[in-house]
Design brief:
The chain has 211 residues and is mainly β. The protein folds into two domains: 136 residues, Thrombin, subunit H; 68 residues, no CATH class. The strands form four sheets. A six-stranded antiparallel beta barrel has the order 1-4-5-14-13-6. A hairpin with a 2-residue loop joins strand 8 and strand 9. The longest helix is centred in the N-terminal third of the chain and has 11 residues.
Length: 211
């Protein structure tokens, strides 16, 4: 029986999620012998440069596949097994590519110190609260909640936190992952046909540990 990529893709389109994909490239700063990135490079992130964002889609694999991946012994909590349709723009994505789940959100609460521009390395969906401590009391910004600029930095408005003061930001963000590796599978390219692939996505916060 001939497997049909078109039918696979049609099904995955119905159950897929909208995502933003950024292709990864190794930075030229890497040492040619050790492969380690230069600690003084201001262009890359731990030896990786990501290309511009591309809007596309993928599908989350079944719980059975998630459990199968966990049995390999190198799984991390929060790893996600995804299926890539052959007609999606990210079909040939590879190691360290970034994927942001645009249909999902998760809460966050993080501490920062106001010593200059505050930059968040993730996409904020909304900021619910920003506050700091003063004489044992919490102080919240009055008026407009901070917004995130295109480069990730925060715009505080008329009243930023005092200089050199530690403060907390609470809100929701879009989950972001990187491609950890391809999930072992049969029929990857049955008879030369581009059938769906499976990859492991790992929380982007763990990126430095994997690279």
């Amino acid at each position: 029986m001939q497997l049909s990529p078109a039918r696979f893709n049609h099904f995955l389109a119905k159950v897929g999620q909208h995502v933003t994909w950024r292709k990864a490239n190794q930075c030229p700063c890497r040492d040619p012998y050790s492969g380690a990135p230069s600690p003084t490079c201001h262009v890359c992130t731990n030896g990786i440069l990501w290309e511009l964002e591309v809007k596309t889609y993928l599908a989350l694999s079944s719980m059975k596949l998630q459990q199968a991946w966990a049995q390999f012994g190198i799984a991390e909590r929060g790893d996600v097994v995804c299926t890539l349709p052959s007609d999606a723009k990210l079909y040939r994505m590879g190691e360290y590519d970034r994927v942001r789940m645009d249909d999902s959100s998760q809460p966050f609460s993080m501490q920062f110190t106001n010593t200059g521009p505050v930059k968040l390395n993730f996409s904020v969906l909304c900021i619910d609260r920003l506050f700091w401590l003063d004489s044992g009391q919490t102080v919240a910004i009055d008026g407009t909640i901070p917004t995130q600029k295109d480069d990730g930095t925060l715009a505080f408005g008329a009243r930023p936190p005092p200089a050199n003061t530690q403060f907390t930001i609470t809100g929701r963000r879009k989950p972001e992952y990187f491609v950890f590796q391809e999930f072992p599978q049969d029929r990857a390219h049955f008879g030369g046909e581009d059938l769906p692939r499976r990859v492991i996505l790992r929380n982007l916060d763990l990126f430095k540990r994997a690279n």
